[in-house]
Amino acid sequence: MFTVILGLSSAFIFGSADFLGGFAAKRISPILTTAIGAISGLVVLLIVFPFVASVWSTEAVILGLLSGVNGAIAIGLLYACLAIGPMSILSPLTAVVSAIVPVTVGLISGESLGFFGFVAISLALVAVVLVGFVPEKGAVRPSLRALLMAIGAGAAIGLFLVILDATPDDSGIIPILGNRVANGLVMSSLFIVLTLIARRKSAGAPIAARAAIWRRGIYFAMAAGALDVIANMGILVGVRIGDLSVIAVLTALYPAGTVILAAIVLRERIAPVQYVGLVLGILAGVLLVLSG
Fold first, then answer.
1. Could you tell me if residue 201 is left (phi over 0), alpha (psi between -120 and 50 degrees) or otherwise beta?
2. Confidence grade of residue 284 (pLDDT, cut at 50, 70, 90)
3. pTM for the full model?
4. Per the structure, how many domains does the chain have?
5. Residue 175 near residue 236, CB atoms below 8 Å
6. Domain span including residue 120
7. Per-residue pLDDT at 140 exceeds 60
């Protein structure tokens, strides 16, 4: 029961982080948004760290750093494929693959699911697709390049869950600390390099104007990073007390958080097919409780 609550809560928080990150990315670059988010998330972790029992070990640090580098790759591929589009196909594809990878690893590792468990996971995967589906007039078919990027992004996100599941149980939030440090260093370095290149190509562009645009998105980026790390901590607890396959599928419902907030804040219309997906996601959660 608690594992299901953690999975669904983490999914909603992830979706909320994506929603705020989307606001930030419209005002500043996606790379800078990610870099700022990593730093703000690290601040949250440093505040929480003294209150969480954590045992330092080489394994915990290495796995944490590895998950951070992997996360940077996942984000890079995700933004790249969504930029190519169409998002209505590529976004749910990424979410489904992100669930399939850890579910497969979990089952191979010996995790067992009853009848209700398998039905729930099947329903949840369908829910992921329906919730992430946004009907678009004249939507084009995705290119092979975009499909491969989406699959790569989903696989990298799924691998992140697998890495967290492999961390020592007594390591507390040390793996997440390592994740934020590595992710922040990678994305910050990338942003600096790309900024220097851009300045050389546009030597006469007013720097003050660019700085003003960045400032308008920095608070959204900070909030997104804080929420993201809270979701990561929830997932970390979830994979340690429950099955990786269950947490992976529930977390993949994160588009629901974005859809709900977009409907409330931006008054965006939720398509009937998305309502069906939300209902199936709730039903999947109930079945997972029954199977536990």
1. alpha
2. confident
3. 0.80
4. 1
5. yes
6. 2-291
7. no
